[in-house]
Each structure stands twice: as C-alpha cells, then as structure tokens.
Amino acid sequence: MNATHQSGGEEAWPELAVLRRERKKQAQTRHLRRGNARHGSKPRRRRGAGAGAGAGGARPLGESGRGWCRLAARRPSDRCPSAAARRPGARAAVGGGRMFRNQYDNDVTVWSPQGRIHQIEYAMEAVKQGSATVGLKSKTHAVLVALKRAQSELAAHQKKILYVDNHIGISIAGLTADARLLCNFMRQECLDSRFVFDRPLPVSRLVSLIGSKTQIPTQRYGRRPYGVGLLIAGYDDMGPHIFQTCPSANYFDCKAMSIGARSQSARTYLERHMTEFTDCNLNELVKHGLRALRETLPAEQDLTTKNVSIGIVGKDMEFTIYDDDDVAPFLEGLEERPQRKPAAPADEPAEKSEEPMEH
Question: N or C: which end of the chain has fewer CB within 10 A?
C-alpha cells in the first residue's frame, strides 16, 4: 500500500508542474492586460496568432507591446541617462555632455587634457587677490614694502611683513594662515642652523628648503597647495637677496619684485627704474619701494602710516620692521602723487581736431 501511494505521488508531480506554469502564464496575461487597459493600448498578441500575423508569424508594428514600452518609460533606470539626469545631484555626471563644474579640479594630482593642474592655478589666484607687496635691493640693503589691509573699520590692519631671523624677513600675499605656517618652518630651520652649525642659515639654502616643503602638497593625493606667495629679503656673506616663492614650489632670485593685487603697475615702475637701485642709499631705496607700492592703489587712495609696513635688512643691520608712526619719516620725504587725468564720459563725443584728418 505504501508502494502504491508512493508511485501515485510521483505520477502527480508532473501534473503539478504543468498546473503551476499555466497559472503563471495566466497571471502574466492579467498583468499585461491591466497595463494595456491603463495606457489605452491593445493587448499584446503572440507571434503567429490571429489574422493580423504576417508571413512567418510577424506582428504588426502598431501591436508590438506598446504598453510595456510605456511602462518601462515610467520606470527610471540607472542605466538610462535621461532617467539619471532627472535625479537630483546628477547634473554634474550627465547632461548631454555638458558639465556644470570642472571635472579636473577635484584633486591636485589630476591633470587636465591641456596639461594643467587647476588646484595649483587656484592657489596662485589667491596670491593675486592678496594685498600688494614690493621687494627691492641695492648693493648694501634689501627692502620690503607692504600694503596692509583691514577687514573693517573696527578691525586692526593685518601684518604683512614677518620676522624670521636676524638676517631674514618675509612679506606675504595670499592666505595669512598658510604664511604663518611657512614662517614658523623658516624660523625653526634658522634656529637649527644656529644650534647645530653655530652660524646663520644662508638665504639661498632657506629658500631651497621652502621650495621643497611647498612642493610636497602638489604631489600627494588629498592635499592642497599653499595659497600664499612670499617675498624673502635677507643678507648673508653673498650680500643682499630678494627671493620670490610661488604656490607651485617655484622660487626666483630677483633684483626687484612685486606680488599681490594690481602688482603689475608696481612691476612696471620697478622695471623702469631698475638701473637706479644698485647705487641707491637706504632712504632712496625705500622711497623707490613706496613709489612702486603707490602705483597699486586706486586714484582716490594714498599711502599712510596705517596702511604701510616697511622691512629693512642690510650690512651691519639686522632685519627691522617699521610700522605705524615709524613709517612717518619715510613718507614725509615722498613727493605728492601726480593726479591722473580722469577719462572722458562715454556719452560725450570726442573733441574734433582743428586740422582735418589725413586719409
């Protein structure tokens, strides 16, 4: 009896499988009909069924399951760019090839197709936005002149010239926080040289160390360049020096230099009078620096004891910073700024010359 029941059960299994397949097909058909009825399309026909089937059982184009196409269109897929574009936060990833942000400025180790590193360019732009500073040298002295800014009338002016060692000082343009970090590093290196070798650190050696330190963030993932430019003034056995450092880790030995906002006007003045700096005495050298710095100011502003800072180092003279009232003697000997001729309004016609123009 048990054997008969067992054999009967084995014969019933194929029937159950067929029944399940039929029920599954019925459920799919009902689901398809509901979708077609909802979207107003005709029910899907099987290939080769019905009078509308063509040769070889092909279906008419109008009855090729438009309901499923519409259902698929209403269900956004991650593989569909048009659906992904409708998701919030996906505008930067897709959008017909148009990018809403630069895809090559996410990290300092990413190069653009043009061979540029945008993070370094952004850091150099921060230097251009900082207040202007000027550095120049003669045979015996090196001078730094910087323009100080105040965040508001209630705030004090920020320091732009920093003391490093008895024979070295710096002026900054850019992020002050980064400048303080580099200044502390320079002070530590100068102290190490005096403690280990019992001698002042040569200026060129210190600038080389700064270049090596500022290059590290430009080559490592997840870091950013230092957003500050430095003018380094120093005096050693080789004489006075003026060095310029950049966020790109480049550094240059200069006779005279200016960095910061509107510094091109100051560089133009320095280039015009560069031959005079070599034989100048200290007072004349400082005046040249003040004149160059004044070129960076708008026409309605002028140099005062509150917005100017001066740093001097030279032979038999340690690095000294002059602020506030100490700057007054240098400003007193400075001639008045020549008034610039205002430009004519655009709506007024230009004056006609008395002589006719030659063609």
Answer: C
Residue 226, both tokens: 């230092």
Q: Using alpha carbons, select from 234, 278, 229 the residue that is nearest to residue 142.
A: 234
Cα separations in angstroms, 54 against 64, 65, 75: 13, 16, 32
Residue 249 makes CB contacts below 8 A (sequence gap 6+) with 211, 212, 214, 215, 218
The CA–CA distances, whole Å, from 297 to 66, 233, 310, 330, 343 equal 71, 23, 17, 18, 17
* Phi and psi torsions of 315, nearest 5°: -70, 130
Q: To which H or E segment does residue 228 belong?
A: strand 228-236
φ, ψ for residue 256, nearest 5 deg: -160, 145
Distance (Å, rounded) from C-alpha 35 to C-alpha 55?
28
Whether residue 100 has pLDDT greater than 60: no
CA–CA gap between residue 114 and residue 357 (Å, rounded) = 48
Phi, psi for 36 (deg, rounded to 5): -70, -40
Cross-strand partners of 170: 162, 232
> What is the distance between the alpha carbons of residues 113 and 257, in angstroms, rounded to a whole number?
32
Distant-in-sequence, close-in-space partners of 220: CB < 8 Å, separation ≥ 6: 108, 109
Could you read off the pLDDT of 14-29 as tens digits, one per residue?
778 888 888 888 888 8
Strand partners, 231: 171, 244
Gyration radius from the chain CA atoms: 39
Which of 232, 237, 303 is CA-nearest to residue 266?
A: 303
Q: Which residues, other chains included, contact 246 with Cβ-Cβ below 8 Å and sequence gap of 6+?
A: 124, 127, 229
Contacts of 288 (CB under 8 A, 6+ apart): 136, 270, 273, 276, 277, 280
The tens digit of pLDDT for each residue in 173-186 reads 999 999 999 999 99
CA dihedral sign, ordered 74, 80, 81, 85: positive
| More reliable by pLDDT, 71 or 131 | 131
The model carries a pTM of 0.67
